[in-house]
């Protein structure tokens, strides 16, 4: 089974409604928030009508005019503008008694002067004072009167009178003098000749007892750094400095949950050596185990220094002596909150979705594995009937076993509290219509192209396949599959002809598993091979498996058969050996899918780009606005993964064959395989030999297998994303100099490479960022990875992986062989 380890935390974006409106009771105005601004140099007025109170310019007449006398020769008094800010605050859906009391106290405090103050900041500077023009502070009106309003969104107002020369409002500052934080969804400022100014906030504003600085919200209108209006330049610089944590008194300390600081750290919080040596895990990130960086939390180090751990020979490192600062960071166990920037926390709607939907899916996928891992009485399924009963009758747990499970994954308690100990499962799609579809070779091959991991199939370009591992350590690199094994499966073709006609394909998990097998197979109840599977493309355009190679390190456990080759069966005995060989291939595939393709490529490797974007790109930067909906919640999902999924003894280690070595395998894949220049769909297809360049084709590529749904559908999405990013970049960058001269843009990309991916910073393949085409290509890749690519790897895991025999993530035995008794021992 390929459990939806990340699906339960699956990415879901909430970019904000394009026309969020809140109407006050009593016939109050409705105020719209702009979802996306128009062309940067065009009109920024909202196309939709905005029914705000638009108090127009008020002219103060001179005394002589009021008396009916002729106007004096001196200039008239300056005109003033009466403006109104309409603030939409989102209320919590569920308030406990403590929060309700605090809300009432804030309402009464607001009435006696401890109010929320707003200030308008102009895009222009004040020639007398030198800084930006600012309005006087104005209190938000209506907090006390609306304290008992039962609504998801409540609208408040603040009135301003400013000089007519004030200019256009470019920012609003909010000072929260209440005791509690509140969530500002949007602000609309009406009354200026330039039209309504829209501010999409979607942010928590902390009280002054937590942060004495007012929050700054910039207009929705995008500005490149060198086009920032004079009145906003210093605010833009200061806001980025604050997000980087520069100048903070506790810059090196532990981050508070209310902070908005973005910093980098290594993965040093997956283990917990204070619980014992068996819970210690190596640090990911650095010379020993290269890995992308994560969000820094600054938690204290563990009391127990991290002991030297025996790493795979796949990793070479200078010393087993760990510095003091390499000690593990103390863990925060779920459900205790772990730090991410405050606005990265899930909103209530997202939390409810997780609790009610995705967590249930996780429970369905992982519970059989977790039950067997914590209960010696139910270690294994007795047969297929036990698996089938999960969908027919459910699985009833004893109270003691429930308690053990809740301790291991405490977030399932809420789901199970009303189930009376009975686990119920939906029937996965793979067995709904045909109970034995998963057993057939054609379905096994189809899932390599259209399953939940369609990104590892590659064209065989030389025969026999050859390993890239060191032959001095791992033996001869050539595969044990010979021409005699497959010649009868090639429809009369020779191997050479099949290669030349692009008819041979492969799933190759040999090199990623082999360096770890010595340690994986010494774990209790865990057995694995490094596998290779060859497929032949038939005249019907479908794949069929023609050979499977199962490899162990040389002389493992005294086993003389380091490599075994299986071919399609000719009798009942060979049929079940063939099925077991396929099961080991599927188990390899499930591990690589989750640890490499899903977690590493679409989650962990994206985190540095997201951190750098918040640190170096202003909220006004057009590229930040483009990326924001694709970045949102990713860091929260990743933080939760460190708490319950990829941590030592967590869900992934418990449910996948590599066990405690899962994340070391992920680090190995990062070092050996990950390249941002090959993460885009066309480059990936060409790298795997699944497509060739062809300018006559719509996407510039010709697929070598026509019935490859991931690629055919993916290219349509890739083309759409490409067109969107090309057009978007062209709106703001008309020359190479405009890209090279954008200090924020260059700082973002440079920091993501040099700091976020520090262990690969010197790699020669990093794309340059010198021209608009370079930028559009990079953005297309990032948007692709966080949207379409992630969806292909994340959604639909339960329909195929929910039936464990189809994709068993954990294998307990090697394939039986005469004369190898240890191969059938658990």
UniProtKB/TrEMBL annotation:
Its EC number is 1.13.11.-. Residues 64-83, 288-328 are annotated as: Disordered. It comes from the Eukaryota. Keywords: Dioxygenase, Fatty acid biosynthesis, Fatty acid metabolism, Iron, Lipid biosynthesis, Lipid metabolism, Metal-binding, Oxidoreductase, Oxylipin biosynthesis. GO terms for molecular function: metal ion binding; oxidoreductase activity, acting on single donors with incorporation of molecular oxygen, incorporation of two atoms of oxygen. InterPro entries: LipOase, LipOase_C, LipOase_C_sf, LipOase_CS, LipOase_Fe_BS, LipOase_plant, Lipoxy_PLAT/LH2, Lipoxygenase_dom_3. SUPFAM superfamilies: Lipase/lipooxygenase domain (PLAT/LH2 domain), Lipoxigenase. PROSITE patterns: LIPOXYGENASE_1, LIPOXYGENASE_2, LIPOXYGENASE_3, PLAT. The keyword Lipid metabolism applies. One of its GO terms (biological process) is fatty acid biosynthetic process. Pathway: Lipid metabolism; oxylipin biosynthesis. Pfam families: Lipoxygenase (PF00305), PLAT (PF01477). Signal peptide: none annotated. Residues 222-826 form the Lipoxygenase domain. Residues 97-219 form the PLAT domain. Its cofactor is Fe cation. It is an enzyme of class 1 (oxidoreductase). Belongs to the lipoxygenase family. Plant lipoxygenase may be involved in a number of diverse aspects of plant physiology including growth and development, pest resistance, and senescence or responses to wounding. This is Lipoxygenase. It comes from Panicum miliaceum. The lineage of its organism: Eukaryota, Viridiplantae, Streptophyta, Embryophyta, Tracheophyta.
């Amino acid at each position: 089974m390929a459990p939806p380890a990340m699906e339960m935390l699956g990415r879901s974006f909430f970019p904000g409604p394009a026309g969020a409106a809140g109407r006050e009771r009593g016939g109050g105005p409705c105020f719209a928030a702009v979802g996306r601004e128009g062309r940067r140099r065009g009109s920024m007025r909202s196309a939709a009508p905005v029914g705000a109170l638009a108090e127009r310019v008020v002219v103060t007449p001179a005394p002589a005019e009021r008396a009916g006398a002729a106007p004096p020769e001196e200039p008239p008094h300056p005109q003033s503008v009466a403006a109104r800010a309409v603030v939409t605050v989102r209320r919590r859906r569920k308030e406990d008694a403590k929060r309700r009391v605090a809300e009432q106290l804030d309402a009464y405090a607001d009435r006696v002067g401890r109010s929320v103050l707003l200030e308008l900041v102009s895009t222009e500077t004040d020639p007398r004072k030198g800084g930006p023009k600012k309005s006087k502070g104005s209190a938000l009106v209506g907090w006390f009167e609306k304290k008992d309003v039962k609504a998801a969104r409540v609208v408040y107002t603040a009135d301003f009178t400013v000089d007519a020369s004030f200019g256009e409002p470019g920012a609003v500052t909010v000072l929260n003098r209440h005791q509690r934080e509140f969530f500002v969804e949007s602000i609309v400022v009406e009354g200026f000749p330039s039209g309504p100014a829209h501010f999409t906030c979607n942010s928590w504003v902390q009280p002054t007892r937590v942060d004495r600085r007012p929050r700054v919200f910039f207009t929705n209108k995008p500005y490149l750094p060198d086009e920032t209006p004079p009145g906003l330049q210093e605010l833009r610089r200061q806001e980025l400095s604050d997000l980087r944590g520069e100048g903070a008194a506790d810059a090196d300390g532990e981050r508070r949950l209310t902070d908005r600081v973005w910093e980098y750290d290594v993965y040093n919080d997956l283990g917990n050596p204070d619980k014992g040596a068996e819970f210690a895990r190596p640090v990911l990130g650095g010379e020993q185990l290269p890995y992308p960086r994560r969000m820094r939390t600054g938690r204290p180090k563990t009391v127990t220094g991290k002991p030297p751990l025996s790493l795979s020979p796949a990793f070479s490192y200078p010393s087993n002596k760990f510095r003091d600062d390499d000690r593990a960071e103390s863990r925060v166990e779920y459900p205790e909150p772990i730090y991410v920037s405050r606005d990265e926390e899930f909103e209530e709607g997202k939390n409810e979705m997780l609790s009610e939907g995705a967590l249930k899916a996780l429970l369905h996928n992982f519970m059989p594995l977790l039950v067997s891992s914590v209960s010696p009485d139910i270690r294994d399924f007795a047969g297929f009937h036990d698996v089938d009963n999960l969908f027919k009758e459910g699985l009833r747990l004893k109270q003691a076993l429930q308690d053990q499970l809740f301790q291991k994954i405490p977030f399932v308690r809420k789901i199970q509290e009303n189930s009376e100990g009975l686990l119920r499962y939906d029937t996965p799609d793979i067995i709904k219509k045909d109970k034995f579809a998963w057993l057939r070779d054609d379905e096994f091959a189809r899932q390599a192209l259209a399953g939940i991991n369609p990104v590892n199939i590659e064209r065989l370009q030389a025969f026999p396949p050859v390993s890239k591992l060191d032959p001095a350590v791992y033996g001869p690199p050539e595969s044990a599959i010979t021409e005699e094994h497959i010649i009868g499966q090639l429809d009369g073709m020779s191997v050479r002809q099949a290669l030349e006609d692009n008819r041979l394909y492969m799933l190759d998990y040999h090199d990623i598993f082999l360096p770890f097998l010595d340690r994986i197979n010494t774990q209790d109840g865990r057995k694995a091979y490094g596998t290779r599977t060859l497929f032949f493309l038939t005249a019907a355009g479908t794949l069929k498996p023609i050979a499977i190679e199962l490899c162990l390190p040389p002389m493992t456990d005294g086993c003389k058969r380091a490599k075994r080759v299986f071919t399609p069966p000719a009798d009942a005995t060979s049929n079940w050996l063939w099925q077991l060989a396929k099961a080991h291939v599927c188990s390899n595939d499930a591990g690589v899918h989750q640890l490499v393709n899903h977690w590493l490529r679409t989650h962990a490797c994206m985190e540095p780009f997201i951190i750098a974007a918040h640190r170096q790109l202003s909220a006004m930067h057009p590229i930040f606005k483009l990326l924001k909906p694709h970045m949102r919640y990713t860091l929260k999902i990743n933080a939760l993964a460190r708490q319950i999924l990829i941590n030592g003894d967590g869900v992934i280690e418990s449910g996948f064959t590599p066990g405690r070595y899962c994340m070391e395998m992920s680090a190995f894949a990062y070092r050996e395989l990950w390249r941002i220049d090959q993460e885009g769909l066309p480059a990936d297809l060409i790298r795997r030999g699944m497509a060739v360049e062809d300018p006559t084709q719509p996407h510039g590529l010709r697929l070598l297998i026509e019935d490859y749904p991931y690629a055919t559908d993916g290219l349509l999405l890739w083309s759409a994303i490409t067109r969107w990013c090309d057009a978007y970049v062209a709106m703001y960058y008309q020359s190479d100099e405009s890209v090279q001269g954008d200090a924020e843009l260059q700082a973002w990309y440079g920091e993501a490479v040099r700091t976020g991916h520090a262990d690969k910073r010197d790699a020669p393949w990093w794309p340059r960022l010198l021209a608009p085409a370079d930028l559009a290509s990079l953005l297309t890749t990032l948007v692709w990875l966080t949207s379409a690519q992630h969806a292909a790897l994340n959604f639909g895991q339960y329909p195929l992986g929910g039936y464990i025999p189809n994709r068993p993530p954990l294998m307990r035995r090697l394939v039986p062989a005469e004369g190898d008794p240890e191969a059938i021992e658990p």
